[in-house]
Amino acid sequence: MTRVSVDDDNRIAVLSPHWKSWAEAAIRQMAPGWQDMTASLGSLQDTLAGAVPPEDVVEEATVLMERARALLEPYEVSGSEQIFGRLLTSATRGQTFSPPLWVDRYEDDELAATTRFGRFHAGNNGVVHGGAIALMFDDALGVTSDLGGRERSRTASLKVDFRSLTPLDRVLEVRVRLTHLDGRKRTLHGTLSDGGRVCAEATGLFIELRPEQQ
Ligand SMILES: CCCCCCCCCCCCCCCC(=O)SCCNC(=O)CCNC(=O)[C@H](O)C(C)(C)COP(=O)(O)OP(=O)(O)OC[C@H]1O[C@@H](n2cnc3c(N)ncnc32)[C@H](O)[C@@H]1OP(=O)(O)O
């Protein structure tokens, strides 16, 4: 397997031409502090989800958040121009919706990475919400589906088996393999583990897009 690290240019070198130009267009538009800004938003989401502040703090935090929203609003662009989620060289992709994926190694048909879920992705009982786990798998399997210069694909089906509770605030291992290739159909299998314990497994069917579907 090839070793890569976060924000390593090697990571963009493995992208198919579509993903490469999609990511590069976003990187060209990005102000220098973008990654710090989205990291702050991620921390804010985790901190807010885990806090029980008094009334004055709620009021002040609301004013500050509204101020940030109003600052950004005049710069709204169309979906095809946005930066959020398009920084494929970064573990977070410059977004806070899905958890980060720190890629350790990859081959054309395999990915080894780590992830971590914060309080924002908590369900009940202080563990990770199942929907957040499915979200992480969709990303991890989707990335692996399009490795090796393969054409762009889209999730047709994603099945998740929850094997044991997934802890918050821990670095967890993600392994994905492309297990079957049949024309435009790609089947991928992924696991999410905490040490040796499997927390969840996923099987996904990704379909290579026809030119008119791009
Ligand atoms: C190191 C770093 C590298 C990074 C590198 C890349 C970076 C990358 C980052 C982004 C990573 C994000 C990853 C998120 C990805 C989404 O979340 S995508 C959003 C969610 N998905 C959707 O919205 C899809 C909606 N559905 C569709 O658009 C269409 O149904 C599809 C999936 C394109 C398929 O439609 P179609 O092309 O018309 O396919 P169709 O001809 O009907 O079927 C083709 C074959 O698939 C089968 N099939 C289709 N659907 C199904 C199904 N649900 N179940 C079973 N079989 C099915 C058909 O039976 C058929 O089989 P055959 O007859 O050929 O044997």
Task: Describe the protein's topology.
Layout: E1 2-3, H1 9-13, H2 17-29, H3 34-49, H4 55-72, E2 102-107, E3 110-115, H5 130-145, E4 153-162, E5 172-182, E6 185-194, E7 197-208
Antiparallel strand pairs: 1-2, 2-3, 3-5, 4-7, 5-6, 6-7
The chain binds Palmitoyl-CoA (PKZ).
The site of Palmitoyl-CoA has 24 residues, from strand 2, helix 5, strand 4 and strand 7.
Beta-strand percent range: 25-35%
Task: Please report the total strand number as a whole number.
Answer: 7
Query: Looking at the structure, what is the overall shape?
Result: globular
Strand order of the largest sheet: 1-2-3-5-6-7-4
Task: Indicate the low-confidence ranges by residue numbers.
Answer: 1-6
- The gyration radius over C-alpha positions equals 18 Å
Major beta sheet, specifics?
Answer: 7 strands, antiparallel
Structural class: alpha+beta
In the CATH scheme, the class would be Alpha Beta
Order of helices and strands: EHHHHEEHEEEE
The fourth-level CATH homologous superfamily is: Hotdog Thioesterase
Bound molecules: Palmitoyl-CoA
Helix percentage: 25-40%
Question: From the 3D coordinates, which CATH architecture would you assign?
Answer: Roll
Find the CATH topology. Thiol Ester Dehydrase, Chain A
End-to-end Cα distance, whole Å, is 30 Å
- pLDDT average, as an integer? 93
Count of DSSP H/I helices: 5
Kindly give the count of domains.
1
